[in-house]
Design brief:
Number of helices: 4
Oligomer: single chain
Low-confidence stretches: none
Number of domains: 1
Strand content: 25-35%
CATH class: Alpha Beta
Number of strands: 6
Shape: elongated
CATH architecture: 2-Layer Sandwich
Helix content: 25-40%
Length: 185
């Protein structure tokens, strides 16, 4: 009986020595009505026609992706739509400030242009894992054994996509070469 009591007391103290860890919280990413991670916004650009906006999007794409010929892309000048399949590596920073590439992120970028506005959409976001690709939404599982690393990678992915969006918005403000030539006759 004494041994049982000592055993129960000893076991009850183990949780006091356990490391208290805060529960992991997934990064806040934009999701659409289907609960898929999607970045989308319509941006108004006054006094600019659809064709000019399409030319600006095309110019931005060629500058932002220097190796753009190697990417799957479609420039649909009839419907003023640019679509591209893009990829980058998600990166995490280790405790010793070393940067580590974790997994490639593949996604579809679409820019639709109409008179005085354009809409960008970044969707179909996937991550690679050795030989297969799967939806990025699976990386949001807090019960995954790699959840902490996944969440750091997703935060980095979100930062990189926001930098791309900011670059696109700045590029869409610059007149295209066609517009500059038109004025300089």
């Amino acid at each position: 009986m004494k041994k049982l009591l000592l055993f129960l007391l000893a076991v009850s103290y183990f949780p006091l020595f356990a490391q208290n860890r805060l529960p992991l919280v997934a990064p806040s990413l934009p999701v659409d009505s289907m609960h898929l991670v999607t970045y989308r916004q319509t941006v108004n650009v006054s006094n600019t026609m659809a064709r000019e906006l399409f030319n600006r999007a095309e110019n931005w794409y060629r500058i932002y992706y220097p190796g753009w010929r190697g990417l799957m892309h479609t420039f649909d000048s009839t419907n003023n739509r640019l679509t591209a399949k893009c990829q980058f590596w998600a990166v995490i920073t280790l405790k010793d400030s070393t940067k580590l590439r974790t997994f490639p992120v593949r996604y579809t970028l679409t820019v639709d242009c109409k008179d005085r506005k354009y809409r960008y959409t970044i969707n179909e976001i996937n991550r690679a894992d050795k030989t297969t690709y799967f939806p990025i939404e699976k990386s949001l599982d807090p019960n995954d054994k790699e959840a902490e690393r996944n969440f750091q990678s997703l935060k980095n992915m979100d930062q990189q996509l926001h930098m791309q969006i900011d670059s696109l918005k700045k590029g869409m403000l610059k007149p295209s070469e066609a517009a500059e030539k038109k004025d300089n006759w």
